[in-house]
């Protein structure tokens, strides 16, 4: 549910066809791609996944501006956070397209960005995941701001609706990730926000790590 392909330019090193073969090897019935700020790979992914008998889930890991799309300062660049969006249905796909387009044409500042106003206007049919260590909730946890983390979680929970927003836990061997995971588990128990496990994939095989570093 959190995969960056070659369409995450200069960041993802996963090609679509090997990705589909690996998913089938693992016996996965469905698979998402969530490229950074773009949906460039959606058509290729959808058509090839269907041919392989896999259910394609179209998504995008959005960059969320700390203020508005019109605010473009060094602090706005520094304060960008991540949010994974998955299209649940046709309406969600259309809203994902709108957001990705808006990010490129209106919000672009170093990278394509949306803001919370845009997200609120185009959230129907979308499922939200709290993303990686660069997600808003995880960032507040790392900055030792539990109240801000909880406020952000409640905002996303209310926006997407019950069962449509997930706290994303990962097992990547990083000590800071363990700290974030524990806080997310506590939040899950207190607020009833469901958990989802992901892996924030940027390359497919362990031996690809060096090539990804070069990229």
Descriptive account of the structure:
The chain is α/β, with parallel strands linked by helices and 215 residues long. It is built from nine helices and seven strands, in the order H-E-H-E-H-E-H-E-H-E-H-H-E-H-E-H. It has helices spanning 16-25, 42-51, 74-78, 90-105, 116-121, 136-142, 146-160, 175-191, 209-214, and strands at 30-33, 55-64, 81-87, 113-114, 126-129, 165-170, 195-198. Strands 1, 2, 3, 4, 5, 6 and 7 form a seven-stranded mixed β-sheet that branches. Strand 1, helix 2 and strand 2 (55-64) form a beta-alpha-beta unit. Helix 6 (136-142) packs antiparallel against helix 7. The radius of gyration is 17 Å and the shape is globular. The relative contact order is 0.14.
Query: Beta-strand level of the residues, as a percent range?
Result: 15-25%
Number of strands: 7
Order of helices and strands: HEHEHEHEHEHHEHEH
Label the structural class: alpha/beta
Largest sheet: 7 strands, mixed
The helical percent reads 40-55%
The total count of helices amounts to 9
Q: Unreliable segments (pLDDT under 50, ≥5 consecutive)?
A: none
Structure summary:
The protein contains 9 helices and 7 strands; from the N terminus they run αβαβαβαβαβααβαβα. It has 215 residues and is an alpha/beta fold. Helix 6 (136-142) runs antiparallel to helix 7.
Key structural traits:
215 residues; 9 helices
Topology summary:
Elements: H1 16-25, E1 30-33, H2 42-51, E2 55-64, H3 74-78, E3 81-87, H4 90-105, E4 113-114, H5 116-121, E5 126-129, H6 136-142, H7 146-160, E6 165-170, H8 175-191, E7 195-198, H9 209-214
Parallel strand pairs: 1-2, 2-4, 5-6, 6-7
Antiparallel strand pairs: 2-3, 3-5
Helix pairs in contact: 6-7
């Amino acid at each position: 549910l959190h995969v960056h392909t070659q369409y995450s330019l200069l960041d993802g090193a996963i090609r679509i066809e090997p990705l589909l073969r690996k998913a089938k090897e693992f016996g996965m019935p469905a698979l998402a791609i969530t490229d950074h700020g773009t949906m460039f790979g959606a058509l290729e992914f959808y058509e090839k996944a269907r041919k392989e008998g896999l259910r394609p889930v179209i998504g995008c890991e959005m960059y969320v501006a700390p203020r508005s799309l019109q605010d473009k300062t060094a602090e706005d660049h520094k304060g960008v956070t991540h949010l994974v969006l998955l299209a649940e249905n046709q309406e969600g796909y259309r809203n994902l397209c709108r957001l990705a387009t808006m990010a490129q044409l209106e919000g672009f500042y170093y990278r394509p960005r949306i803001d919370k106003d845009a997200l609120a206007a185009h959230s129907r049919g979308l499922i939200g995941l709290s993303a990686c260590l660069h997600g808003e909730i995880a960032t507040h946890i790392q900055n030792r701001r539990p109240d801000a983390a909880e406020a952000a979680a409640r905002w996303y929970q209310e926006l997407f609706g019950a069962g449509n927003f997930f706290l994303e836990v990962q097992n990547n061997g990083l000590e800071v990730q363990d700290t974030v995971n524990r806080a997310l588990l506590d939040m899950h128990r207190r607020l009833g926000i469901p958990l989802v496990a992901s892996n924030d994939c940027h390359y497919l095989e362990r031996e690809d790590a060096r090539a990804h570093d070069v990229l």
